[in-house]
Design a protein that fits this description.
alpha+beta; eight-stranded mixed sheet; three-stranded antiparallel sheet; 374 residues; 9 helices
Amino acid sequence: MRLDVEAMSADIEQSLALLRRRLDWEPALRKLDELNARVEDPTLWDNPEEAQAVSRDRARLEGQINGVRDMQTGLEEAVMLSEMADEEGDEAALEDARAQLRAIKERAARAELEALLSGEADGNDAYLEVNAGAGGTESCDWAGMLLRMYTRWAKAHGYEVTIEAEEDGDQAGIKSATILVEGPNAYGWLKSESGVHRLVRISPYDAAAKRHTSFASIGVSPVVDDTIEIDINPADVRTDTYRASGSGGQHINKTDSAVRLTHVPTNTVVACQAGRSQHQNREQAWKMLRARLYELELQKREAAAQALADAKTDIGWGHQIRSYVLQPYQMVKDLRTEVETSDTQGVLDGDLDAFMGAALAQRVGATRGETVEG
């Protein structure tokens, strides 16, 4: 084999070995057998909540194990192809083998990071909330750009995205929006995006073509199911109904169907307007409120354990986690991990994996530098 093929093969073997160690391979195989047996037991379904939890655990573990097996098989096939191509002097076939190895290497790198998603809510779906900072039209437009960026990232990774609430800006963009991102590890990947995001550009709304700085904040909360106890006193929650704005068809603009809940002790506010009835929106808003309060509890635990500052700070100077500079040069830089790229358009189109991966690795204290590239 050529040297580059040998090097890639060795890197992949190292990654697969690391994944097996993190999965605790042999015990993981035994646990999967146990979970398969439980799922096949008809009496399990006498308790639907327990059955759903077992099914989720089984699907997650089976996905991790099958992923390692698939990559191992792909590696062996690519190596065999490269050996045959090398012997026959077939450069086209050798390049095909290289392409297969590169794809497996990228998949293995992502799997390494996913193996770090061990938090109690990391595997859950997520609510992502965007709020424009001070600055009127500029900040509202920036908030709209962020909403598009995260929606594109989610869809590129096979997640389902639902707009739960959206308030349009007065001239452009949005004042705020909340989306539901559904899929494996949605919260685990998105949680590090919470914080203030700063944009520097020549304003399309300024006739003098001056450079403007805009801010918007991102908040991420895990969707919590009935197995997680969140005790909320109804007396602590103020309910407001209003006529929905933004997208959603004609129906929602004719009735006061949108619902806003305010948890007075924590000043936590959620809103939902996606449903066609006030009842549907009220039910979903309560789910969102439970998720937000659960996220607050997770933040308290993490702050106590790691002495990390709360990411939900003022939306303005000195608090940003990432800067997106479009003028006078092109650069997106994460101020926590120092990861940066000049491919600003790619990032705004949803290419966020390098930033998320670096933040995740930093968060759990990982040190393998090759998993993070700026």
